[in-house]
Automatic annotation (TrEMBL), chain A:
Protein name: DUF1116 domain-containing protein
Pfam families linked: AllG
Segments crossing the lipid bilayer: none
Length: 474, 495
């Protein structure tokens, strides 16, 4: 033997090996018969026709480094809330242009709540006098529609953004990216759920006239608000940052209150702002989404990486974007969430899945952090063990664990972060998404909340595109 | 008796591994009133078998669909069996997660490797899926044994490149046996620890060698499989080179034996050059025309260690009462044992047809043939969607019954390979078939590869097989020579 050569094969020959067994049970049993420790894999085959795609993508020599780079960038992003400004200024939105949630969509394929929100936005911008007039104009192609994601923006539910709406501006202090999200309107009859009645438009006007300017003054006085820190704390206080934002909203108000009061705004306006935020447990959601968008965007455009950098729905299609395939969308039909309904609504009233809020799951929050939020598992139709299982199952399809976003009940394990297209296809485990449900008829508003999964075929399509992008061996 | 009741159905997207399905099929077949039961993934091979059982294959059956075919005495028995099947499949499904907070079972090799420290991944998923799992293991810093066959050679090379980059080894693909750190992996025999390190590109070749050495009182330090293609020009000995270096560094290894078919000439040069640079002596046991058989190679190893070669155990049988003339038919579970038997037999008998032929022009296309024939039932095309013949004897028993019923076969040569993971009692299924063959005047010879410490107990198996009328040999070469003599040939060097 050669004395300096002892660590060969990671020390394989130096002791009884500890083994991972994947496949035929009889081989694992034979090891157990010899009292050897075995971790067995509950393996099942991927969909027919994907084995060669998987081999090609997993054999790509760039992949390991590409995935590591992409997910490291997501994990190291430092999203900070720095400003609030009207969409016409920060996004350069022209009158008659509207952003919407999800992958690209036109009026003809738009669902009820998406149409309702667009009608509301037409009314808000003064481009139509009545809902009927708005609808006719939209159907005639009077408006220009563009996905939020194409503008560094995310929008909950219908996600409609019009020029006069005020936007949270969130910067990634680590990598320099910027993300935007509108201000949260509260629950019930609200534009994002497709409602466009007078009270909806009135609220939006107040948000542009009072809420936006006051928040801008406060955050400018305060300086950048560290959203990563608030999210990390909120996870330990029972939020998962998609369907529960109560702790994060409270933490935000606590941090911002002095700077809200310190300005020269009338006391009645400051009170109205505080009262509005107090009445809306989801106020922080839009900041969580912008933070998640800024983080996920940091992982974009790494050639060879199968990291999912966006999941979004427009009420008709569910789409994903992947780091190694640029801005291309992979889309399939949006499913209808499974969960609980408000009041007398039932499954027949729910619209297919809608909204950019799945950016939270993309960044390791929401359904992926479900174990942190046992208080709301019943709201989405489950029990506490389901919440723990949901998060733990997501480790099977993610590349990393977040260093700061932790789940106390899982011994402060980091949340599963960075969805890997190859692992989704291999395991058949689809990302768990917590979501609200919009009514299918325009103008209805929210009808419930529940869990939903993306269509499996969009991950297969993304895998095929990744395989196509693998350089041919010389 | 009433006409039997039949049912064939397809359960799309229901996957269970082939061993589980073999057990389910067996359990169903043992129920009273059930005549035939076949529960298997709908691969081409299994659809052929379905056809031979007289069932009609359903339309659009694919390898990811579970095929169920049942034949019973009457409708109630059929319905009972169908219900029992659901229960058996549910039982075989994944276990429910444990208590509150217990994580669900890992679903990929990568996820399992992340849970607890590990040294080696043992991959036995169907070949087309093995690459992903093996790549996971390498990425996590684990060595890999790929038991699966049907893995494309380009994928094998990619895996071995990755392993070399990371200082790891890929054993396989199609690596049936290994002994690492005293643990038997795959089909491995229970052998004593000792000074001999084996590198095997020929799974049952390694098993034959370790069993013979064990019988002679010499143990092994490690047995590292490298896969049957490792010494081909394409793969270029990548794993063999890793294994040579690792065994040279292993303090327990005093002598290295490389067991393989003759390598591609350029690769042979590479390996011999690498061997010369080692401090540990290397013995080559290369199975090919004009080379030593494995038993002779065992003798050389013993000589190198200064140990005498024993008389290899044999358990004779009386010749069949009315021996009938006819061709030699070898029905093998071990590819290397089949190859060795053909090398020996062809010297005396000439042409031997086979699915792993010695010469391309001796290829056997399947079906009946008048001449000498040896089939390797472990070959890739005969294991798609089926467990290996060392576990599932169905295809071989089917062929043995065919040879017994036919009239052109005079002698049957079988291997029986014992060890971990192999059929817990192969003699139980074989003995009645052997008795039937002997009763029809066939000579039956068994090459019994195993040790006294194997879970099946070699000597008990030998007693049962010879009791059924087979002549049983611990040495495959001796078994082959005996079979040739029975078939009327005059083997050189018979002894």
């Amino acid at each position: 033997m050669r004395p300096n050569d002892t660590a060969r094969l990671n020390g394989l020959l130096d002791r009884a090996p500890r083994i991972v067994a994947t496949g035929t049970a009889v081989l694992a049993e034979a090891l157990a018969q010899q009292a050897v420790p075995v971790e067995t894999v509950d393996w099942s085959p991927p969909p027919p026709g994907t084995e060669d795609l998987l081999a090609r993508v997993l054999g790509d020599p760039r992949r390991a480094d590409a995935d590591a780079t992409a997910v490291r960038r997501v994990l190291s992003a430092r999203p900070q809330w720095v400003d609030v400004r009207p969409a016409r200024e920060v996004l350069g939105l022209e009158p008659g242009t509207f952003l919407h949630a999800g992958p690209p969509l036109d009026w003809d394929r738009a669902s009820g709540p998406m149409r309702g929100a667009l009608i509301g936005a037409m009314l808000l911008e003064g481009l139509a006098g009545t809902p009927e007039e708005a609808e006719r104009a939209l159907a005639a192609g009077a408006a220009h529609l563009s996905p939020c994601h194409h503008h560094g923006t995310v929008g909950p539910m219908a996600g409609v953004v019009s020029p006069s709406m005020w936007m949270f501006v969130v910067e990634d202090a680590r990598h320099g990216g910027t993300a935007y999200c509108s201000l949260n309107e509260g629950l019930g009859k609200v534009l994002r759920y497709g409602a466009y009645g007078p009270e909806v438009i009135e609220r939006l006007r107040w948000m542009s006239a009072v809420l936006g300017p006051l928040l801008r003054a406060a955050v400018r006085r305060h300086g950048p608000v560290d959203l990563r820190a608030i999210i990390a704390q909120a996870l330990q206080m029972g939020d998962e940052l998609h369907n529960r934002n109560r702790a994060a909203t409270s933490l935000l108000v606590r941090e911002l209150a002095a700077d809200l009061v310190a300005g020269d705004a009338p006391a009645a306006d400051v009170a109205a702002v505080l009262r509005f935020v107090d009445g809306n447990d989801h106020f922080f959601l839009n900041l969580a989404m912008a933070a998640a968008k800024a983080s996920a965007d940091a992982g974009r455009d790494v050639p060879g990486s199968g990291l999912v950098v966006a999941m979004a729905r427009n009420g008709t299609d569910f789409g994903i974007q992947v780091s190694g395939t640029g801005d291309r969308w992979f889309t399939g039909p949006a499913g209808t969430p499974d969960g609980l309904y408000l009041a007398s609504y039932g499954p027949g009233d729910a619209n297919p899945d809608i909204g950019d809020s799945t950016i939270t799951e993309t960044a390791g929050l929401g359904g992926f952090a479900m174990a942190a939020a046992p208080a709301i598992v019943r709201f989405v139709g489950g029990e506490v063990p389901d919440a723990l299982t949901a998060t733990q199952r997501m480790y099977e399809i993610t590349m990393a664990e977040h260093p700061d976003y932790q789940v106390p009940i899982l011994s402060f394990r980091g949340t599963p972060t960075g969805i890997d297209v190859t692992r989704v296809v291999r395991t058949g485990i689809l990302p768990t998404v917590n979501t609200g449900m919009a009514g299918r008829v325009a103008g209805t508003g929210q009808v419930g909340a529940g869990l939903v999964a993306p269509p499996a075929e969009i991950f297969t399509a993304a895998l095929a595109a990744l395989a196509e992008a693998v350089p041919r061996q010389p | 008796m009433n006409a039997p009741a039949e049912r064939v159905e397809l359960l799309p997207g229901t996957y269970r591994d082939s061993v589980t399905l073999m057990r389910v099929s067996r359990t169903l077949a043992e129920r009273s009133g059930v005549r035939d039961a076949m529960v298997a993934m709908a691969t081409g091979l299994n659809l052929d078998l379905l056809d031979r059982l007289g069932f009609t294959a359903p339309d659009k059956a694919g390898p990811n669909d579970l095929l169920v075919a049942l034949r019973a005495d009457d409708e109630p028995a059929l319905a009972d069996a169908r219900q029992a099947l659901d229960a058996l499949l549910a039982e075989a499904a994944r276990p429910a997660p444990g208590g509150l907070g217990a994580p669900p079972s890992p679903r990929t090799t990568g996820a399992a490797a992340a849970r607890a420290p590990a040294d080696l991944a043992l991959i036995s998923v169907p070949g087309p899926y093995a690459f992903a799992e093996a790549m996971d293991a390498l990425s996590a810093g684990l060595n890999v044994m790929v038991f699966s066959d049907n893995v494309p050679v380009a994928q094998e090379i990619r895996l071995k490149e990755e392993a070399a980059r990371r200082g790891l080894i890929v054993m396989g693909p199609d690596c049936g046996t290994a002994v690492v750190g005293g643990v038997g992996l795959g089909f491995a025999n229970a052998v004593r620890p000792g000074p001999v390190g084996i590198i095997g590109a020929a799974g049952t070749g390694s098993q034959q060698l370790m069993c013979l050495l064990d019988t002679a009182g010499v143990g092994v330090s490690q047995v590292l499989g490298v896969g049957g293609r490792d010494l081909s020009a394409q793969v270029s000995g990548r794993s063999t080179l890793q294994a040579l270096a690792a065994l040279d560094a292993d303090p327990a290894t005093e002598l290295i034996v490389v067991v393989s078919k003759p390598p591609a000439p350029r690769v042979a040069e590479l390996i011999r050059a690498a061997a010369r640079r080692l401090d540990t002596p290397v013995v080559f046991a290369l199975l090919g025309p004009g080379q030593d058989d494995l038993t002779a190679a065992a003798g050389r190893v013993l000589a190198a260690l200064g140990r005498p070669e024993p008389r290899w155990p044999r358990w004779p049988a009386a010749p069949p009462p009315e021996a009938r003339p006819g061709a030699l038919r070898g029905l093998f579970a071990g590819g290397t044992l089949c190859n060795e038997a053909m090398l020996i037999a062809s010297r005396a008998l000439g042409e031997i047809r086979s699915n792993i032929p010695l010469r391309p022009e001796w290829a056997w296309p399947g079906g009946a043939t008048g001449g000498h024939l040896m089939i390797d039932f472990g070959e890739d095309s005969l294991t798609r969607g089926r467990a290996h013949p060392m576990i599932d004897p169905a295809l071989r028993l089917d062929r043995l019954a065919g040879e017994t019923a036919g009239d052109d076969c005079g002698v049957v040569l079988l291997d029986v390979v014992l060890g971990y993971a192999a059929d817990p009692d192969p003699a139980a299924a074989l003995a009645p078939a052997i008795e039937a063959a002997v009763a029809r005047g066939l000579g039956v010879v068994v090459s019994l590869c195993g040790t006294a410490d194997d879970p099946q107990d070699r000597d008990r198996q030998a007693a049962a097989l010879s009791g059924a009328g087979a002549a049983v040999f611990a040495s495959n070469a001796e078994a082959a020579r005996h079979a040739v003599a029975l078939a009327g040939g005059t083997p050189e060097g018979a002894g």
